[in-house]
Sequence to fold (424 residues):
Amino acid sequence: MPHDTPQRPACASGSSLGRAKLIHVSCDSIEHPREPTGPERLGILSPMLCRLFAFALLFAVAGCADDRVVVRLCNDGFLDADQVCFDGTPRTYAIGIDPVALRSADFDGDGLGDVLIAGLSADGVAAELRLSEGSALGEIADAGVHGCSAHPTSGDIDGDLHIDLLLATCAPELLLFHGSPDGHFTGPETVAIPTTPRIAALIDLDDDDDDDLVVLGADDALHVLLADAPGLYTPGPTTLMTGESAKNFALIDVDGDRIADLTIESADGLRHARGLGDGSFGQIRLIDGPPIPLGLLAADIDGDNNIDLLTRDGDDGDLVLLAGDGNGGFVEHNRIDLEGRSSGPILSADLDADGDREVIFGDPEEPTILIWRRRDDGFAPPIEVELVAPASQLAISDLNGDGALDLVAATFRERSFTVLLANP
Fold:
């Protein structure tokens, strides 16, 4: 079961620290098998009455201005700020191929998140799709894709409002599989590129509302194919990264000019270059951060409308938040001590609808997900969510359409993935 330990903030009236009280109120309407007593009576109140009771309780126990009270109203159907609830029973699904990549998105356009697993079958690269049925995922279906790499790039490439997939071949080309209303994929079409691809991404680099194709190639160069129309590309600029030892990259507007900028994860640091609006980038410069970064995530994590960077320090293992200044600069702002845990999957999403993105870490050795929530001076102590098995990869999606983001954790060595539905 998740547990939540709020930090003790400074009191408004002085420098002393007030005690933070945690009140976990369940507004589940399940009938009790016996006459409830005390707090159990909350379990049979209507959601609205339960909420009113909880807020009355908040004011009753607040005491003085020094005290901070956190009320977690799970199971009441309302998504409240500061509420992260994953108290339900995890549901585990089998994987029929050797899994390599986890993806979760609304592949059939019904407003519910679905789960795609790409990997290797006896015939080569393949993918399995489970479409959401609301309360659960459906049976395994063959997604109908193939290629040389089992790391698909997804997006609405052809402009028909269905999610498409790009898979690399073992040649200088990509295979474009078109999405359809039933969630399956047709094609493929071949997209010629200048080099054998390592990583591909879709993003609008020239502000024409069409996603361009960006490929980090085996030649250590970043190749841009500009979209003339959805899914129709012409060769664009190439950014040479010889000597940068690029392992990964992120493309996102960090300076507010509506043009995506480039951040590179390399073996000896993070690097950044400003997007110029035509698919090219300015001078690549080193960011003052961990000398050996492990992983790269770019998002507005602290809710100030500036893009931040999150990476792991390869020397001491800490998660490091580099806060963006809105002009392309970054400075180390916070660290999260992972206490010697091995490298695991990291995500960021606003799970509690408070405008700040939580940091989500999957422990690769223990069946646990850790979730850190932002506070003005850093991060609150983590919420721990128990899994059935350690997580190889994580995904976030609203699988049941209730407006709350759910967690998907894949355990590749056991050929399974687990779904944790949020219960706001």
